[in-house]
Amino acid sequence: MAASATHDGAGTRTVIENCAIATVDANDTEYASGHVVVAGNRIESVGAGKAPEGLQNVGRRVDGTGHLLTPGLINTHHHFYQWISRGLATDHNLFDWLVALYPTWARIDEPMVRAAAQGSLAMMARGGVTTAMDHHYVYPRGSGDLSGAVIGAARETGVRFTLARGSMDRGEKDGGLPPDFAVESLEDALAATEETVKQHHDASFDAMTQVAIAPCSPFSVSTDLMRQGAELARRLGVRLHTHGSETVEEEKFCHELFGMGPTDYFESTGWLGDDVWMAHCVHMNDSDIAAFARTGTGVAHCPSSNARLAAGIARVPDLLAAGVPVGLGVDGTASNESGELHTELRNALLINRLGAHKEAALNARQALRLGTYGGAQVLGRASQIGSLEPGKLADLVLWKVDGIGHASIADPVTALVLGAAAPVTLSLVNGEPVVENGRLLHVDEDAVARATRDEAQRLARIAAGS
Ligand SMILES: [Zn+2]
Question: Where is the Amidohydrolase-related domain (predicted)?
Fold first, then answer.
């Protein structure tokens, strides 16, 4: 046990005790009443009962009575810019929704993207997300430093962050959906992506900012960009991300254009591997799932967005049974207006129970695992985050489960997953508090709310005049 009586130089300690703990380790170890000791930015010890006595350099002691402590939630698919285009085209399927919204999205600029990122990140962080991601793929000509704006907003909020630097080079004139002025050339997209990786990607164990290479989707990107994007990622040693197998329309598009389904197309362009994760993966047959399992390709399951766009139900129980890494994503808030990851824990469970496996599809603990350890796996960071274990980074959330919304549910994990969004009493990222008593510590929520409203109105005005 780490009950060393002398300060070992690991940094100031934070002790959290008297709370239920779901570690989400390999054995799903839980404690009805336990403790976690954080030293610097790492978890030093986790166990039953009170923290060890005689700890030195304890800067803070938190009484977690009435709370559940879990790893912080990890979001694996999002589009921050959509925060200022929510609630539109609500009766559309994916392709019609994209066609309806691209003319608006093509007008975004740096101040809009900054405000949208601040709004998205604030909503994530105050709901228990400790690692956020943004798949940003709309870079209209002359729109400013959009990647820098998003990364800056993540730093301000205090969460760990992956920017999936997206791109599109298949505009309307090439049979794609986006307007031509909203897409980049192949050369520009690759050069800007490489520059973003070199400028911002941190490969260290406790990195706060990472960059992945993320062409948008098979139907908005040329085969050359898919292939060369994969080659670039492997040359630079970063991960790959895209949308895949989201709808029947996409499957049809791939058959018509490439003579094969999406998974075979991904394989043919170098896009299956343990350094790749894909959003959605709804329309997968058994051999597609086997190909993901064989190659270690990960999936970002986005149940609310899939329902909002009538895309279908991803086969999560089959993916998990095959050994495919699966995390959760909110997806962009133009197709999931709430923007909260907690909702995805609940909806992953509920929606999969409407699928083939019915009540055996997912349980509450599997849903929590998708939102924590599963997310760490698909981001390639399972050795660093995603579970409460000594040596891992101190990204953790203390959820209040003794209030009106949860007190009558005996099992705290069930209360967290199936109950209303539990209040976040304390969220630590890298050992540092980011949320206390439901409020963000580093961001003025009211100012962010005003900025998002103002920028949403400015975008609507510009789009209406275009
Ligand atoms: Zn998406």
Answer: 69-406
Predicted local distance difference test score (pLDDT) of residue 465: 86
- pLDDT, residue 466, reads 65
Q: Report the alpha-carbon distance of residue 2 to residue 180 in Å, rounded.
A: 59
Query: Does any domain span residue 452?
Result: no
Find the 332 Cα to ligand 1 centroid distance in Å. Answer: 6
Domain range for 89:
73-378
CA of 274 to the centre of ligand 1 (A): 20
The mean pLDDT of 23-30, rounded to a whole number, is: 98
Q: Which residues of 65-100 are buried (b: 16+ CB within 10 A; e: fewer)?
A: ebbbbbbbbbbbbbbbbbbbbbeebeebebbebbee
Kindly state whether residues 331 and 396 are assigned to the same domain. no
Q: What is the pLDDT of residues 403-431, one digit of tens each?
A: 999 999 999 999 999 999 999 999 999 99
Same domain, 345 and 400: no
Model confidence at 20: pLDDT above 70: yes
| Ligand 1 mean position, distance from CA 302 (Å) | 8
Same domain (yes/no): 148, 297: yes
Residue type, 153: A
Residues 242 and 358 in one domain: yes
Residues 6+ apart with CB under 8 A from 97: 89, 309, 334, 335
| Cα 58 to averaged position of ligand 1 atoms, centre (Å) | 43
* Cα(118) to centroid(ligand 1), Å: 18
Share of the chain above pLDDT 90, in %: 88
pLDDT, mean of residues 314-331: 98
Ligand 1 center to residue 106 CA distance, Å?
A: 16
Pair (228, 138) in one structural domain: yes
Calculate how far, in angstroms, residue 79's C-alpha sits from the geometric centre of ligand 1: 6
Report yes or no on 160 lying in a domain: yes
How many Å lie between the centroid of ligand 1 and the Cα of residue 342? 18
What is the Å distance from ligand 1's center to 347 Cα? 17
Instruction: Examine the domain organization and report whether 61 and 147 are in the same domain.
Output: no
pLDDT at 7 over 50: no
Q: How far, in Å, is the centroid of ligand 1 from the Cα of 12?
A: 39
Distance 366 CA to ligand 1 centre (A): 23
Please indicate, yes or no, whether residues 199 and 57 belong to a single structural domain of this protein. no
Say how many Å lie between the CA of residue 403 and the centre of ligand 1. 34
Bridge partners of 13? 39, 58
Number of domains, the chain: 2
- DSSP-assigned letter for residue 374: I
pTM of the model: 0.96
- Share the mean pLDDT of the chain: 95
Q: Tell me the CA–centroid distance for residue 101 and ligand 1, in Å.
A: 13
Q: Are residues 284 and 431 in the same domain?
A: no
Q: CATH number, domain at 61?
A: 2.30.40.10
Q: If you ran DSSP here, which 8-state letter would residue 360 be given? A: G
User: According to the model, what pLDDT value does residue 10 have?
Assistant: 67
